[in-house]
Every structure is written in structure tokens, then in C-alpha cells.
Amino acid sequence: MSYRPLAAAGRLVPLLRAGLIAGIVVAAAAYPAVAVTGIGAKATAHAVESKTRLLTTALPAETSYLYAPDGRTVLTMFFEEYRQYTKLSDISPSMQQAIVAAEDNRFYQHHGVDPKGVARAFVANARSSGVSQGASTLTMQYVRMALRDSATNPREVQEATAQTPTRKIKEMRMAVDLEKELSKEDILERYLNSAYFGHRAYGIYAASEIFFSKTPKELTAVEAATLAGLVKSPSQYDPASSDQKEATARRNYVLDNMARLGYVSPDSAQAAKGEPIRLRLTYPPNDCAAVPEKWNSWGFLCDYLKNWWSAQPAFGANPLQRLDKLRRGGYRIVLSMDPKIQAAAEKNVGTESNTGSPFANGIVVSEPGTGRVKAMAVNRTYSLNLDENPLSSNPEAGPDVKANYPNTVAPLMGGGDLPGYQAGSTFKMFPMLAALDAGMPLSTTFNAPHSYRSEVYDGWQPSNASGAMSGTQTMWSGFGKSVNTYFVWLEEQVGAERAVRLAEQLGLRWRTDVDREHASPAKANKWGAFTLGVSDATPLEMANAYAAVAADGRYCEALPVNAIYNRDGTPATYTTPGGIEREVAKPRCRQVVSADAARAATDAARCPTGDTPAKGSCGGWSTADSVRGTVGRPVAGKTGTTDSTRSAWFVGYTPELAAASFISDPDNPFNAVGDGQSQIPIAAVSNTLRDALKGKPKRDFVPPSDRIVG
């Protein structure tokens, strides 16, 4: 293989010794065929060609937008690089001309590599005994940026940006090949969407918005020249710095080049150079903490969205990949929240924590049949700033640990890594459903004593909260009065493990070591206290589990979105294990118990609320008999309190909505809320369902069949 075309450059070795590697590279580029083969590119030609093909389809990272349910109001964004891809037709001609004038005067004359620029850079670098000029065309710069942005690991990033002759020549080869595949307009569009302008502005859309609060189509020649001047060195030429001297000089250089290239007249350029740089800076919101103040509580659902997203295989192999996709994938995400229901929830949660109480009162509202989360509210302010928070009420937390009120971003309603709160007798729904689904009728009768010794559970002896609960009970009266001994006995009949597994099918997860141990196959059938709600659960889980009962036994996974669109406007999809492609934002539902069993459970669950079941008798009194009058329509539900009333719950539902509310101290579960506050969750759910359904037609529950009534 001959190197004779380079013989005239016999000074290569001395130059190398002088450190002029860049000069050698750009000189070699003047002889692309020899340079490529001379560096041994045959061994890597296939890889280079593959990379080039990739760059014809590769798109840069793009900001994802989170919208309110109207699909138009932007709540916040997610990005590492703030960027929104913009078509060339939506970028002002002045901006297109300015970037060419700033970075590559001969862009429309060369074919990816500019021999004149190479020669000029070689001479300049030789004279300066260093690298004083580069020879990168816009196409070469785009190749470098695209390789960097499409890198999947640190090694690829390093290879894309390393200052080496090999990298430079590969870049040139790819630039030449790329210009055979893409038009100049395509390359210019991609360049303008990839370039970094400083202030976290990646691409011309972000730069236009951040520096001038306008779209790229609205940029004037002066503004375009200012932005084009930034690409060479965003920090050195930053017009937002206190001294605009260098930024102005660089802008004027671009204006002079625009005049020289005939893009503007000399007189216009001269007049523009006399203008000061006038900025209108905008800083885009990023992540959930940036949700606007008037929608502050929506930050909790935003935070749940992120946690949900990190668990979706459709967006990557692990949580880190999935969140990276959220910040780089350019998605358009529409929240599932209903503003009317959210407003009702916000109004009806307690306000004690904002006046100094450690007790959190939260509520989650879910839609039966879809699993969509319609509201998520808590008496907290969604904020990262904990400076004004008092110290934690937990004596084991340490001397400097802040409490979670009034400000927090902790996932207090579920969807994160917090275990939740003991949910008390709301868990009685699970053995009752299991018994009904196994064929036991609602009329199943047991003479429940005040205290019951269980031989199945090795002599464990629970008792009722009141002596008035003793006596003959059915599922209606046992559920309405929350008779512990009846439900321990019922759980024995159907098997505790069956009730535990049913709860899992309805979305419950065991997050503490104690709960996981008791729920294990080896021990679940001895978990007698399961029916009394000794396990931790979250309002999100409980609202969704009860929503499945309202939906005739059809459980739907909790869903925080109405829609998710890819950057090209198509719905985001995933492939099921069976090979079926489905939209990520569509409900994922499955039948867990028979419709008749669910309807029977609902008939019994009308008893705690003061409602009248379709088929049986509630036994004369109930634990939350004010609910029916408050809601003003058919309603079912269940109260729940723990030992010493450390936490209190109410889960209620109508055919349209299911809501779960709790009150507890998230920092210290041993800090009892007390009986005096046990009515707060009942009021929160009752009032929220009333306000959310105001003006809606009243719907009744479908009654169970006579077969399951017994």
C-alpha cells in the first residue's frame, strides 16, 4: 500500500514530535481514501458503515412533557438535556443562516469534509505549534454529537469525543457517507436540534425559549446570531453573564459572516451590531418538585407516576434505564387525575398537619373497571424544602432527622418504597371474598363469642372491640359491626393462605420482613391475624382492591395515566408475554373472583355505611352509619382501626369510584392517633365521594344471586 500522496508532507514525524496531532489528522483528511486505509480502516470499515446507517435514523435525547388531564396544560417536564425536536420549517431562516455563518461557511459547497478548511487549519496549527483551528464541518460536528448522544455506555461516549487521529478520521469518513444518505437540510435540522447552547439548553427550541422566551420560528437575525455564536463555547460567550463583552463580540463576528455570505446586507449587519443583547430568560420546570404552586398537591401523583414508570418493562430492563428513558425519550404523558375529584379530595382531607400535627390524613380515589387513579391528596405540601419542618416524632430517628410535615415528597399514599400503615379491619374484605368465591353463602352463620380461642392458629385468642358484637352473626352483620371473632372463624373455614393469596391478586404487596415471612407459603395458613389487618398497606392498594369489588371482581392495576405518546405522536406500546402488542396506558385488568362473589361482598359491605343491603340484614347497627346519608347514594365500605388506634382507615365505594383514606403518623407508627380522630378518614371518603359525584345520576349496585345469598 503506497503512502506517496503524503510524501510531500515529509515533516510528519517532526510535527508529531511537536505535538501537532490535530494538524496531521486534518491534513490526512485531504486524502480520504489514503487516510482511511492508512489508519487500518479496513478492519473497522463495517463498524463505521453500521454507525453511519444508525445516524440516519438516530434522534437526540428529547424532553418528556407531563400534561394535566386536558392534554394541553403542561404541569412539568422530565429531562437531563432540555430539548424539543423542531422541524427545519419551524426554525427561522435567520437561525439557519446564522449557524452556517458561525460554524461552517462552506456547508453548502462541501460533501461532509471541507478540503479548504482542512488545509487552512493545518497551516494555522503548524504556525502556532498547537491546535489553534479545527476543520470540523457542520456534518462532522453532527456526527460527533450523534455518536455521543446515542452512546449506551461510558466507553462509547469516550470514543465519540476522544481527541485522537483515529476518532477524527472515522468522523470524517462517516460525515462523507452521511451526506450521501441525508440532504443538507436534513443535516442542518439535526445539527440545530443537537447542539448545546448553554444553560441546559440542548437544541434550538430550548435555546430560543431559555434565552428569548420565544419559538425558533420567531427568532430575529440579531437573536439568531447571538445563539449561533454560543455553540463554539457556551460558557465563554454566555450572554446571560454579567459581562456581555465577549458574547457581543462573538455575535458581531457571526453578523459580519452573514453579511459576507449575502444572508443580510452590510448596512443591516452594521446596524444590528450596534444593538445591545436583549434577553428574556426562562428557566423550564423539571421533575415533580417543579409542578406549579396552584397544583401543588398534584406533585404527589406526579411522583407516583415516576415510581410507576420505573416498574414498567416497556421502558427498559431495569428502573435506571426506565427513568433514563423518561428523561430522554420525548414522551407526552397525560395524567389520569380528574380535576373535579382531585379538588374534592384536597378539600376534604384534614388540615391538622399544617398546624403542627404529625398525623397525615391522605386519600386515594380509583376508578373501578380501569384502575385509573382519579385523585391523590394528603394534608402535606409537596416540597423538597424541609427547613421549616420540626424534628421527627420517632425517638429512634436520630437527633437531626426532620419530620415529614408540613413539607414532604415522601410517597405517603403508596406507589413508592414506604411500607404503608396497618389497615385494621379493612382487611376483613379478603377472607370474606375468599369464602364467597369458594362457595360459602352470605348467610353463613356463627355464634361469635366476645373472645375466641383458635385451635387452628395454635391457641391464639382474639377478642371483639365491644361486648355488643357477641352473638349469632352472618357476613352482613359480622362485616357491618366488624366482629373480629366471626372473621377469625370465617378465615379458618376458608383457609388463611387463600385469603392472603387473594389479597395479592388484588394488588397488595408485603414490604416488611415480618409481613413477607407471615405471607410465605410455609406460614400463610397460620396467619390468623391477617383478617384483623396487622399487615401494612397503602391507600393506593386498598382503593384499588376495593375498586375490584365494585367492578364485579375484575381487578385492574393502578394506573396514573390516561395516555402516553412517543415523540412521533404514536401511543407507547409494550409486548405481552404472549406476543400481543398493547398500549402502555391502557387498563390492565383480570377477573380475580366471580362477579357473583364480588356482588355478594358488596351487599355485605353496604352494612358498615348505614346503607341497606339488597338481600340480608345488617343486625341493627354499624361502624360508620353516617356514610350513606353523607354520600346520598348507594355506597359500600369498611372501617379499620389498629391496636390503641395507632392508625384509622375507611375504604368506601360506589359503582363509579372507590376511595381509601387513612390517618397515621408516617414517622412513628407507635404514635397513636387516638379514638377521637378515627372519624377523620370516614369524613374524608364520604365527603369526597359526595362532592365528586355531585350532579351524576345515582346508580345502584347489582344484587347478588339467590344462590350465593343462601
Describe the structure.
The protein contains 27 helices and 19 strands. The chain is of the alpha+beta class and 710 residues long. The strands form seven sheets. A five-stranded antiparallel sheet has the order 5-4-19-18-17, with helices on both faces. Strands 2-1-3-13 form a four-stranded mixed sheet. The chain has a two-stranded parallel ribbon with strand order 6-7. Strand 17 (636-641) and strand 18 (648-653) form a beta hairpin. It is elongated and about 100 Å long. Residues 1-44 and 129-133 have low confidence and may be disordered.
Layout of secondary structure:
Blueprint: H1 12-17, H2 21-29, H3 32-38, H4 45-55, E1 64-67, E2 74-78, H5 93-103, H6 115-128, H7 138-149, H8 154-161, H9 165-181, H10 184-194, H11 204-212, H12 221-230, H13 245-260, H14 266-273, H15 298-309, H16 319-328, E3 332-335, H17 339-348, E4 360-366, E5 373-378, E6 381-382, E7 407-408, E8 421-422, H18 429-437, E9 446-448, E10 471-473, H19 475-481, H20 484-494, H21 496-505, H22 513-519, E11 536-537, H23 539-550, E12 554-556, E13 561-565, E14 573-575, E15 581-583, E16 589-591, H24 595-605, H25 627-631, E17 636-641, E18 648-653, E19 658-664, H26 679-692, H27 706-709
Parallel strand pairs: 1-3, 6-7
Antiparallel strand pairs: 1-2, 3-13, 4-5, 4-19, 8-11, 9-10, 12-16, 14-15, 17-18, 18-19
Helix pairs in contact: 2-6, 2-9, 4-9, 5-12, 5-13, 7-8, 7-9, 7-10, 12-13, 13-14, 17-26, 18-20, 18-21, 18-24, 19-24
